[in-house]
Amino acid sequence: MKTYLRHAVSGPRVLLLLVCMNMVAMLPTVAQEPAQQEQPKVHIDWQVGPTLGKLGNIAEIKIPEGYRFADKAGAEKVLQLTQNIPNGRELGVLVANDADWFMIFEFDNSGYVKDEEGDKLDADAILKNLRDNTENSNKERSKRGWKAIHLAGWERQPYYDPQTHNLTWATLVRGDNTQEEPAVNHSIRILGRRGTMNVDLVASPAEYAAITGKFNNLMAGFHYVEGNRYSDFTKGDKMAEYGLTALIVGGGAAVALKTGLLAKLWKFIVMIIIGIGATIKKLFKAIFKNEEKVENPNQQAASQGQ
């Protein structure tokens, strides 16, 4: 599972989104007051909603008015500007125009994940596994001078919807300072024919209810393109080496953990996104302000008669 830590600073990955040890993603580094730093000039090819965002050749999502979308290149730039390290699996980024949060889409080409465990998920056992993995990862984080993160508990226990093939859960994550506000890491794994689309939301507990409503409305506009849907599975397709439980605790990383390779692979496994509430908004205002040019490729093509 990916873990996003909402770290309070004086003065961002997210996303909302956009998570602990989803050990499929790299644990986050704590941003150093990013909102107070001057953002460099950037150029991101934004598509302004309403439009259709293409997530590679795998999936699409409807972008409503009030939001903007960019492809893989834009997603990587956003991560770098928010002091997160791209892992190469990013396919797109969706940002609210008011810049309260952003959403990163990643595709894990792990193969077809069987959903036989859908009604047998052991929340207590999964939570213990996540906590153990998170604390173990703190040893590596300490060696690199990164702050520790801790899993406080479930905000929402794992739930699998066999109709949409969506696996959803939410955890509470905090740092060493118990006085700091924790973060809610809301995670969705959308099962497909060749792997999973990973989408995550990070917010404060107070904001969580309102933000998840927006998040769910946006996700209603997501769909795999024909040939990539879960129902398009064909005998002979690549199969994932794990099921739903392992997908939550780290997917392929969970397999590596069992084989003793975690110490070597962990830095490729965990990606962290830091969400800081209002700080995210300030940060994106700075990004938008310092963009060389924000344009809508669709409008540009129309103006050229294409």
Q: Can you give a write-up of this model?
A:
This protein is an alpha+beta fold and 306 residues long. The protein has one domain (4-297). It is 28% helix and 25% strand. It has eight helices and 13 strands. The chain has helices at 72-81, 123-143, 205-219, 244-249, 252-258, 262-269, 278-289, 297-303; strands spanning 4-5, 47-48, 51-55, 59-63, 67-71, 90-96, 102-108, 150-161, 166-174, 183-191, 196-203, 222-224, 273-274. The strands form three sheets. The protein has an eight-stranded antiparallel β-sheet, sandwiched between helices. Strands 3-4-12 form a three-stranded antiparallel β-sheet, with no helix packed on it. A two-stranded parallel ribbon has the order 1-13. Helix 5 runs antiparallel to helix 6 (262-269). The protein is globular and about 50 Å long. The N and C termini lie far apart (43 Å). 45% of the residues are buried. Mean pLDDT is 74; it is low at 2-37, 259-277 and 293-306.
Low-confidence stretches: 2-37, 259-277, 293-306
Q: How large is the radius of gyration?
A: 18 Å
Shape: globular
Distance between the termini: 43 Å
Instruction: Kindly report the spatial arrangement of strands forming the biggest sheet.
Output: 2-5-6-7-11-10-9-8
Give the strand tally: 13
Number of domains: 1
Q: What is the number of helical segments per DSSP (H or I, 4+ residues)?
A: 8
Order of helices and strands: EEEEEHEEHEEEEHEHHHEHH
**The biggest beta sheet, please?**
8 strands, antiparallel
Beta-sheet strand percentage?
A: 15-25%
- Mean pLDDT over all positions: 74
- Structural class designation: alpha+beta
Portion of residues in helices?
A: 25-40%
